[in-house]
Predict the structure.
Amino acid sequence: MTTTASPPATTRRRRSGDTERGMSRVFRWISTAAAVLLLAVLAAVAVFLVQRGLPALTASGEELQTAGRLPRGMTHLGQLVGPLVFGTLLAAAIALLLATPVAVGIALFISHYAPRRLAAGIGYVVDLLAAIPSVVFGLWGGRTLAPVVADVWVWVAGVLNSIPGLEVRATATGRSLATASVVLAVMILPIITAVSREVFLQTPKLHEEAALALGATRWEVVRTAVLPFGRSGVISAAMLGLGRALGETMAVLMILSPGLLYSFQIFDSGQQQTIAAYIANQFPESSGLAVNVLIATGLALFVITMAVNMLARWIVARRKEFSGAN
Amino acid sequence: MAQRIDVKDLNIYYGDFMAVQGVSMTIDPKSVTAFIGPSGCGKSTFLRTLNRMHEVIPGAHVEGKVEMEGVDLYGPDVDPVAVRRSIGMVFQRPNPFPTMSIRDNVLAGVKLNNKRISRSDADDLVESSLRGANLWNEVKDRLDKPGSGLSGGQQQRLCIARAIAVKPQVLLMDEPCSALDPISTLAIEDLIQELKQDYTIVIVTHNMQQAARVSDRTAFFNIAGTGKPGRLIEMDETATIFSTPKEKATEDYVSGRFG
């Protein structure tokens, strides 16, 4: 009795390698549940979009024109979704093009150039920018920015027009896609800046010192150590920003004078419209099949956003070998 | 190519805290000088002041003089970037740039400052630097692979190749073998013996056998207690330091009767 160590009376069978117990197991369930919840929400949205958009996809041209309230002259859904997708992508792309260099610049300034106290202040201001509601951005963009920036667009259009073969129009009201994109750029600036800053701050000291010891100036340290290290992070940040720009509704709605054309006249009014702004604009007056039409355009936005994110992940993964993760 | 360094009454501060006090020494060209001493005695800090790398830490500053061939490295019109170009450094942990290939790692220092270099010159430099670091035969077939895919010892030799590619006058090594296995350590020690034909080498090491094996002269640093500044206790021929040092503290340390 005293010498033989008897096995515990009840040994519950465990899966091999399963050593979880108590809090560890609880935490695993909580985190699993959170992940499942996320997928469930995403699936629910996808199901909703497909289910409610389907009637519009299957409806005949006549039904779409009458009950579906398609704009005059359109006989099938593609004629509406096409220009909307085009406008959405164009606005978001311009916004991204404007915002990313500025955001990376601010992030680098905060992480590597500014004195510590100034850096904290600037970081705070940038975060504050993210707290401004998009309605306010819309009001500001439509009322204050548009009239001011219109003069700039007219001038730019004038310069571009001097190039033979180019015909650029600009509206004097400033209610153009270019203005909307500038406001979108301001709106996505905080998220790109914040994520980039965090990534840049995580650059291993070892790599920065390696560059310094080779006789690198501060800019060269940034170029050889910080930017390559932060590259994938900046792309992720830009994609987060792009996601917001694609889906932004109020600001575009309140600034852009819409049209449904495949047009690169970004300084003119009545040319393009984005999906989200179109839905918000049309929804109050819609019922029946018209709602299905709007939801079908929403499905298009959903698909675009997913495609953009997958593209971004592919870009990041392509150079994984050189990422320093190995 | 190799140049001598004279240090005169050097005090090193981090903010108000004095980390190292009153160091004077001469580092001979084309020789290996080893710094030994207990942890926290300021030998790495002192090493970093030789190429102004300690300035990366905010508030770090020095009093006194560090002269290379008579030119004060802390003179008012001396650019720290230029100092680091002529005094290269190898770190405790191998740190090749992870986003660069082996070839680009070697060329990293040369390509700084937008220097143009022809393809054939670059090829020659890559080969001579990697040969100089005894790494060429191991990596010549995979120059376009990432440097981070090499073993630790190979990575460290890649870092040495990168440092000598910019043709420095002095090479500082901050415990270059402390993260390596004995075989890789031996490879680096052999390399140090070859490099001293061309370069002035200063090495910080925790390994006294290593100091005895590789160095011509040895400097022993010590610290009186926590919060006190580190000091240079004694510097002499390596053989002397390890057999008949003048100071009792040195003898205690090298014979293992420390503390």
Observations:
- The radius of gyration of chain B is 18 Å.
- Strands of chain B lie at 5-14, 17-27, 32-36, 60-68, 71-72, 87-90, 170-174, 200-204, 217-223, 230-237.
- The mean pLDDT of chain B is 89.
